[in-house]
Write a sequence for this structure.
């Protein structure tokens, strides 16, 4: 199966833009409000998704990094506008990395520092891209649920709605 990973990423960026519109339409306290699920707040969840994207793109480029180097820390990006701007810059870098990915079956080794101790991890470049997409969709769903708990009827961001080409059957 041949999957256009750049097109997949374009969908994610489009869906992310719609989600940011919903987040920005709320009073600032909704962004940092505590919720009893997910990563606890819209802010923490969005920062986590962006930091993971940054880390995996670094890995695709063959660079290891300490998590402290992530540009997606709450202290560095205190507002939703600051995060959206920084993430937009990262999204352009991510798109370039995917457009120049080469063989998606290319092995990528890295040190994972998630968990009680570092471990050596191995995946293919394509698996990393698929993980980034699924990771974002998973956490974006949590943000959508948080928005709904805050009274926001966030729109449907499903791939079939935003990415499939549609034509009316009525002419």
């Amino acid at each position: 199966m041949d999957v256009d990973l750049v097109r997949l990423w374009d969908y994610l960026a489009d869906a992310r833009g719609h989600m940011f519109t919903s987040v920005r339409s709320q009073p600032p306290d909704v962004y940092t409000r505590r919720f009893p699920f997910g990563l606890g707040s819209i802010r923490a969840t969005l920062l986590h998704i962006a930091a993971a994207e940054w880390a995996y793109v670094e890995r695709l480029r063959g660079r290891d990094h300490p998590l402290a180097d992530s540009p997606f820390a709450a202290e560095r990006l205190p507002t939703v506008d600051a995060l959206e701007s920084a993430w937009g810059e990262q999204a352009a870098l991510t798109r370039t990395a995917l457009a120049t990915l080469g063989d998606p079956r290319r092995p990528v080794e890295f040190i994972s520092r998630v968990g009680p101790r570092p471990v050596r991890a191995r995946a293919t470049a394509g698996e990393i891209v698929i993980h980034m997409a699924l990771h974002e969709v998973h956490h974006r769903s949590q943000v959508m649920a948080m928005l709904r708990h805050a009274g926001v009827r966030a729109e449907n961001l499903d791939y079939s709605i935003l990415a499939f080409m549609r034509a009316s059957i009525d002419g």
About this structure: The longest helix spans residues 125-149. The chain has a mean pLDDT of 88.
